[in-house]
Amino acid sequence: MDTVPAGTPVPQGSNWGLYLEVFMATTTTAVTALSAKALIGARVVNLKNENLGKIEDLVIEPEDGRVTFGILSFGGFLGMGEKLFAVPLQMMRTSTEDRTFVLDVDKEKLKNAPSFDNDRWPDLHDRAFGSRVYSYYGYPPYWR
C-alpha cells in the first residue's frame, strides 16, 4: 500500500489552508489524515522511547503549503527554562495509535540544537535560519 511521508508538499494549485486540516502522515498500514489541531500538543519521543517534549506548533511554507518544521518544546521544569526547537518535519514519524511523534535524535544532540525562547521566535521562513537547522540535523534544506 502507498504511504505519504509527513511533510509532503501540497500539489500545485491546492489550497494550503485546507492542507493544514488534512495533514498527511505515515503509518505502517495505511495513509491517515490527521488534523494539525490533533498534532499540536502531541508527545515526542526518541527511538529509545525517551520523552523529548511535545509539539507546540507547525510551520507552513505559504508558497507551496509544505509543512516545514514541527516546533518542539524541550527541557525545563513545569514550563520554566523550556526551550523551543524547529525540527524538520521529515525527521519525525507519527504513531497514530498513541498520537506520538518519533524523532531519531539523542537527548544530548537535541539539547545542543539551535533553539529559541517562547517570547523570542526567529523568522522561521528565513533561509539562513532554515539552513542552520537542516544542516545541524544532517538533512538537505527542502528548497534545494
Number of strands: 8
**How are helices and strands ordered from N to C?**
HEEHEEEEEEHH
For the largest sheet, list the strands in their spatial order.
6-5-4-3-8-7
Coarse morphology: globular
Q: Biggest sheet: strands, sense, closure?
A: 6 strands, mixed
The CATH level-2 architecture is identified as Roll
The number of helical runs is: 4
Mean pLDDT across residues: 77
Summarize the structure.
By secondary structure, the chain is an alpha+beta fold. The protein has helices spanning 16-21, 36-39, 107-111, 127-136; strands at residues 23-26, 31-34, 43-45, 51-61, 66-74, 83-88, 92-95, 100-103.
Description:
There is one protein chain. The chain has 144 residues and is α+β, with helices and mostly antiparallel strands. The protein has a single domain, classed as PRC-barrel domain (SH3 type barrels, Roll). Helices cover 17% and strands 31% of the residues. It is built from four helices and eight strands. The strands form two sheets. A six-stranded mixed sheet has the order 6-5-4-3-8-7. A two-stranded antiparallel ribbon has the order 1-2. Residues 1-31 have low confidence and may be disordered.
